[in-house]
Amino acid sequence: MPGNKKNKIIKKSDKKNNQNNLQKYLEEINLMQKKIGILNEVVKVTSQNFDINKILGRFLDITLEVVGADAGSILLIDKNSDTLYFAVARGSKAEKLKDYKLTIGEGIAGWVAQSGKSVITPDVKKDKRFASKISKEIKYPTKNIICAPLRFEEEVLGVIELINKKGNGVFNEDDLEILEIFTPYIGVIIKNAQLFIENRKKIERLEHLIEITKFVNSTLNLDALLNRMLEISTDVLNAEAGSILLLDEEKDELVFAAATGEKSDKIKEIRVPVGEGVVGWVAREDKDVLIADAQNDPRFFKKADQKTKFKTKTIVAVPLKTKEKLIGVVEVLNKKDNSLFNEEDVNLLEALANQAAVAIENAKLYENLKQLFLNTVKSLAAAIETKDIYTRGHSERVTKYSMIIGEKLGIKAEELENLRLAALLHDIGKIGIDESILRKPAKLSATEFEEIKKHPIYAANILESIPQLKEIIPVVKHHHERYDGHGYPSALKGNEIPYFSRIIAIADTFDAMSSNRPYRQALPLDICIQEIINCSGTQFDPEIALVAHKALKEHFESKK
User: Fold this and answer.
1) Residue 544, class by beta-carbon neighbours within 10 Å (0-12 exposed, 13-18 middle, 19+ buried)?
2) What strand order describes the sheet that includes 83-90?
3) Are strands 119-121 and 145-152 parallel, antiparallel or unpaired?
């Protein structure tokens, strides 16, 4: 009998052990099913989507569901600032997290990123690593946390953090085991995405370098060159604003030659002495500079911010040099995503500056030569007008009105230069007209008028000896033609007349009407402007006349 009783006790014990083992097996099977389910979901996520944020968001959704967490986030490391930023977040206060960053080592997530170790915190109040600031500010009470590093090989790329186990439970080792199923896949995806973005940036930057190289080799227009270089620099460095300052050697000052941003016009009024401010320091020291906190840098030139109401946060600036000669400084300000500029940005800006510097110097030399030539032309036009005391300043005014009309017509800047030259020289042929005719204080006789009508032909003959002016010879020769074919010297009609000649014809007639002459006083401006419309289709090209009427009316109204 005693033996039977002992056997019954053993059988009960075996039964209990079997039940415990069965329960354990069921739990293991349940965990394995979860793992298999997770792996299936991983395959779906990674095979159906190529958007990194959507992939990370889907991973986070699956993890929250499987582990049973109320909220969570994936934070990635920004190597430039040594911080963690919220790449994706879920939960009732998730939207409020996008503006927050954690320094590496700050809070539980920061500790995991720094140590590379996973952590389970059943009660955050008892964990000294817990930083309550964000929780308090977004008004989300945090009770418990589970957090694991996201790695690629030995490199920690970020962390995944889950908050508050549902049903008032706490996270456990099984939850961590499930969580760590995801982390290798997330790590690989993040690394691949980073490599892809990095390579894409390198390709984009190379393309921008090629673009600036092509552009600097295709233009001598200084303004266009500076603006394009600055546009490319701010774009490729993802900057809010930028400027190019050229050196005024005589005054030892830097002058804003190009600037971007809403207040670019105001900043161009500022001059920066060499040695003053960040750009002045770059010019004096002939060194690149990278500034993370401009407002607290002793070199920062606050006058520009005060003038434009723009707040400069971060700066990268490099010298513009040709060989060993400094010609200016280029700077870009504030990353659009609020991150910091880095050495790679400095190197890129330096490469862009090196490409552009020689072209800028060549463009400056060309601008100087062009200005010298233009001044010579103006002097020539003024010298001619000394023969005709009644039309002094006429060529300058005709040029001004021609440019007003040309700009309103949308003529390109390069072509406007030819219009300017043609307008300045349109009466150069009067050098061949007898002074007694030009200075006659009364109306000309028919014979005298026939002599005056020769001045466009004289002008064409004079200009033929100057190769640089060959394009404007037809313009000058035919500026007295009429749209109806009754003009001179060739009685051209309509579109047979050079386009710029048709513009100068209006400007020339308008100035004649609005200026005092020996035989009459100047007509009122409103009558002169209306006469352009009255002569449309007969003396003037009707389409140009319509635009000229509007342009000149707007010009004189703005002067009131």
Assistant:
1) buried
2) 101-103, 83-90, 69-78, 155-165, 145-152, 119-121
3) antiparallel
Contact 370, 228 (CB under 8 A): no
Task: For residue range 161-181, list pLDDT tens digits in order.
Answer: 999 999 889 999 988 988 888
| Nearest alpha-carbon partner for 88 in 103, 67, 71, 113 | 71
**Summary count for the chain: helices (H), strands (E):** 19, 12
Tell me: the pLDDT tens digits for 42-92?
A: 555 544 455 677 878 888 888 898 889 999 999 999 887 788 999 999 999
Decide if 31 contacts 174 (C-beta within 8 A). Answer: yes
Give CA–CA dist 403/423, Å, rounded: 9
Which of 61, 70, 64, 77 is closest to 110 using CA atoms?
77
CA dist., res. 328 & res. 283, Å (int):
7
Q: Which residues contact 71 (CB under 8 A, 6 or more apart)?
A: 64, 89, 90, 91, 92, 93, 94, 140, 162, 163, 164
Distance CA 147, CA 119 (A): 5
Are residues 76 and 155 in contact, defined by beta-carbon separation less than 8 angstroms? no
